[in-house]
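Q: what does this look like with manganese (II) ion bound?
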Amino acid sequence: MSAHRIAVIPGDGIGREVVPAAIACLERIAELHSLTLEFTPFDWGSDYYLQHGRMMPDDGLPQLALHDAIYLGAVGSPEVPDAETLWGLLIPIRREFQQYINLRPVKTLDGVAAPLASEHPIDLVIVRENNEGEYSEIGGRMYRGLPQEGAVQEAVFTRLGVSRAAHYAASLAASRRGRLTSATKSNGIVHTMPFWDEIVAETVSLYPDVTLTAEHVDALAAHLVLKPWTLDVIVASNLFGDILSDLAAAVTGSIGLAPSANLNPEGRYPSLFEPIHGSAPDIAGNGVANPVGQIWSGAMMLEHLGHTQAARHLQTAFEAVLRDGVRTRDIGGTASTAEFTEAVLSMIDAQADEQVAGLS
Ligand code: NAD
Ligand code: MN
């Protein structure tokens, strides 16, 4: 079995707590499935910034390029402006490595009480365009000291950018329930959205098994709260997808549960796997962070690297632990990060034993 080189950036705050927890789980899985995962840690983040004036070294991106995947915790610190942490590390990685798909699965988990409890299970995926749109570098500036003081930033939507996101989302929908919802705001106020609609419709028409519905993002936000179980795959621009996915994660329980993959689908560059939550300075250092989003992101990384069975093993292990009632505080439990992780490690072993028993 070939070795995979994985760059690990725990980052800041609870990133430094949930990343080691999840790596312990990945190492156990690797051992049981005879995979070689070589983890290389990088101490980049806000402390690095306070010492060196930048989030990562000059040759940070070329160093990462030597890896098969990047496993990130979270970056962000009260001592460093968020613009520095994001534009100094996360955004350059997403753009340099053409990670134009931000994939965010959302589903209800047994044992986790959703704040809007209903008998319908939620199982949807948000495909967020990750390289352009509202998070563009064009025109972003503030105009101070003028009578018309203000700030301007241009949204950029290209045919290539929109169509590749739509292709990815449509083919994913075709492999699921065949329903694709596009988040739009095409009622003439946001001038880029009619273009988004046009390219999405054109692209999805190539997938006869996929039904496309365009929904205004404000109505779609309400839809996600009221009837999330009717949604299958959502395709959205960078900003809309960012907001909808935090909302969708909260609807199923806690943002501490939700994973994400920043994908370069062609595999030309490394993809990046991270939980959707941030560094949570309010609870950092207390050992109480929920490691599920980080562990689940690890399962997505295994899947991306081609190890479907190992990914499924990790996924079923943490799901079974939640079902057994072991929970961190954010979802109403009392377990510490370490206790939850120990329970996952034991469950991984127990499931491996069951499999062996089942085979004999
Ligand atoms: P956050 O996700 O860090 O925290 C929001 C709330 O959710 C907090 O109350 C926090 O305690 C809770 N929470 C988050 N993850 C949790 C977990 N795993 N277990 C238990 N509770 C959890 O968002 P924020 O407060 O808006 O941002 C804090 C910092 O993180 C900022 O500097 C921000 O820029 C950064 N951030 C980074 C990323 C990233 O690295 N991709 C993403 C979002 C925010
Ligand atoms: Mn976000």
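Residues 114-252 form a domain with the Isopropylmalate Dehydrogenase fold (CATH 3.40.718.10). The chain has a mean pLDDT of 94.
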